Amino acid sequence: MDKQKQQLAILGVLLLVLVVFLANAFMPKKKPPVSAAAAVIAPVLSLPPVQAVPTPKAEVSAKASPDELKAQQDKAAMDWGMDPFFHSAGKEVYQGSSLVLKGISIGKGRRKYATINDEIVTIGDSLFGYNVEEIDKSRVLLKRGSESYYLVFPEQ
């Protein structure tokens, strides 16, 4: 047999193997019938037992320098502005305070809200000793004792 016939024979055998392999790969596999109870129990029974693994405890070995501690204390003492979790009900007006109307919202059902000094209030709320009596689309009526004030938006 000459070399060319050998190459053709090898090529033919390889093609035959490839065809058999591809036919096997695309054929649907038939699964043996399994009862419903066996299908549920088999995965559970094959699980390995669970063992408790101790977790390592974290140790803090690095200490902050006195300069770093001072910087952290200075940051903690900074005035961060309004606390969103603290309601101002019951706060008293201190000398030199000013009330600034920042926004008014009138929603569905005619529910009215006003933002005064970063505090959201509605009719009946108290702010710095003033009671909110009325909220219109451009002003808020505040009352303290016998005094009444209309708070309007600041000039731009």
Instruction: Outline the biggest β-sheet.
Output: 4 strands, antiparallel
First and last CA, distance: 103 Å
Mean pLDDT figure:
77
Spatial strand sequence of the major β-sheet: 4-5-6-7
- Gyration radius, to the nearest Å? 40 Å
Write the H/E string, N to C: HHHEEEEEEE
Taken from the alpha-carbon principal axes, the silhouette is elongated
> Which structural class fits the helix and strand makeup?
alpha+beta
Beta-strand content: 15-25%
- Give me the count of strands: 7
Distinct helical segment count:
3
Parts with pLDDT < 50 across at least 5 consecutive residues: 90-96
State the helicity in percent bands. 25-40%
List keywords for this structure.
single chain, 156 residues, alpha+beta, four-stranded antiparallel beta sheet, three-stranded antiparallel beta sheet, 7 strands
Descriptive account of the structure:
With 156 residues, the protein is an alpha+beta fold. It has helices at residues 3-26, 36-45, 66-76; strands spanning 101-106, 112-116, 119-122, 126-127, 130-135, 139-144, 147-152. It has a domain at 101-152. The strands form two sheets. It has a four-stranded antiparallel beta sheet with strand order 4-5-6-7, with no helix packed on it. The longest helix has 24 residues, at 3-26. The chain is elongated and about 120 Å long. The termini are far apart.
Quick take:
This protein is of the alpha+beta class. The protein has three helices and seven strands, in the order αααβββββββ. The strands form two sheets. A four-stranded antiparallel beta sheet has the order 4-5-6-7, with no helix packed on it. A three-stranded antiparallel beta sheet has the order 1-2-3, with no helix packed on it.
